[in-house]
Amino acid sequence: MYKLFGYGLKDIPYINRLKNRVFYVIVITIVALNIFISFSLNLKKISNETLINSFIIVDLQNNLNEEKRNEIEKYILTIDGVRSVRFMDKSESFKNLQNELNISIPEASNPLTDSLIVSVKSADLMSQVQEIIETREEVKEVYKDEPYLKQSQEQSYIIYIAQIGSAIFSILIALVTIIIFNLGVAIEFLNNANTGLDYRKNIRSSKLKNLIPFSMSSVVATLIFFNIYVFFRKYVTNANFDSSLLSLKEIFLWHIGAIGILNFLVWIIPANLGRIEYEEENDDEFEYEFYEDEDRKDEFYDEFEDEDEDY
User: Fold this and answer.
1) pLDDT per residue over 202-217, tens digit each?
2) Res. 108: pLDDT tops 80
3) Mean pLDDT throughout 13-29?
4) 17: buried, middle or exposed (CB in 10 Å: 19+, 13-18, 0-12)?
5) At 243, is the secondary structure helix, strand, or coil?
6) At CB < 8 A and 24+ separation, what contacts does 76-82 make?
């Protein structure tokens, strides 16, 4: 085993190949770590959007003029817990109803009134906001879309579970990355096993030699991920999905912070090489072999001198 790794020699091809493989594997794991971090961040965004979609519908009284509509809109916006208000005239409501029921009804038979779509910050505030709005004389009726609200809550719960799963995978990948780093340290450690270095000094020296390559691999992996993310986000945006991904500017500091923490942990945590041990070679054995060879050499010379005298 020790002969395979040499005696602290540099530029040995198979040792360099092993180190390069460790470098590539660390790059791959850190790219995967960044993917799970971005996945978690975007899930949080979708979750917030789902909560924002908690809304109530306010049917207005018939024949309200524009001034009255603007007044009620401004009033609703001042209510605590209201995020936004959108006006929807009765024609738009009527078209939406026809599309939902998949029927065609003449516009003259439209029984609906103008309405306001009130987006609420939290589903817990909906009842409170509803009670306040109902006190206004401009309001005919206030109601919640219960089926849609229930669906939004179920989606939020699923997204929350996915967020937790993504966070757990991120932590596991970070641990795997640290283990792979220790594997690189072990390669350097075994390569110096027979150089006479003290066990602890060998571990320290082997770790120091691998810290800079690790930090470089984390930077390379993060840059690779940023390029992949920008390309994928552009694809998602062009595909006109209901929800777009966070911009690179929005996730940049999160990823830099996560990779910074990972590097900090790798730098401060002592290298753990498990039960790797080596025995120092005994100089007495070499001395014994040396003297044994010298005795054989003397015997050879004695025989040679006796033959010379006989001659």
Assistant:
1) 888 889 999 999 999 9
2) no
3) 89
4) exposed
5) coil
6) 76/116, 76/118, 76/133, 79/129, 79/132, 79/133, 80/125, 81/120, 81/121, 81/122, 81/125, 81/128, 81/129, 82/118, 82/119, 82/120, 82/121, 82/129
Structure tokens at 234: 């552009």
Phi, psi angles (nearest 5°) of residue 23:
-60, -45
Instruction: Using alpha carbons, list the distances in angstroms from residue 84 to 3, 52, 256.
Output: 73, 9, 34
pLDDT (mean) for 260-288: 68
Contact 47/156 with Cβ under 8 angstroms? yes
> What's the Cα-to-Cα distance from 136 to each of 59, 75, 112, 128, 142, rounded to whole Å?
11, 10, 19, 14, 11
Q: Which of 231, 251, 248 is nearest to 239 (CA)?
A: 231
Dihedral angle computed from the Cα positions of residues 130, 131, 132 and 138, in that order, rounded to the nearest 10 degrees: 80
b/e code 200-231 from CB counts within 10 Å (16+ = b): eebbbbbbebbbebbeebbebbbeebbeebee
Mean pLDDT of 57-77: 86
212, 266 contact by CB (below 8 A) = no
pTM over 0.70: no
Phi, psi dihedrals of residue 145, rounded to the nearest 5°: -85, 85
Residue 186 DSSP label: H
Give the pLDDT confidence score for residue 81 in this predicted structure: 84
Say how far apart CA 168 and CA 161 lie, in whole Å.
11
Whether the CB-CB separation of 33 and 160 falls below 8 Å is answered with no
Report the 10 Å Cβ neighbour count for 55.
24
Please give the DSSP secondary-structure letter assigned to residue 138.
T
| Cβ atoms within 10 Å of 105's Cβ, excluding its own | 12
Confidence of residue 283 (pLDDT cuts 50, 70, 90): very low
Residue-level pLDDT at 64: 79
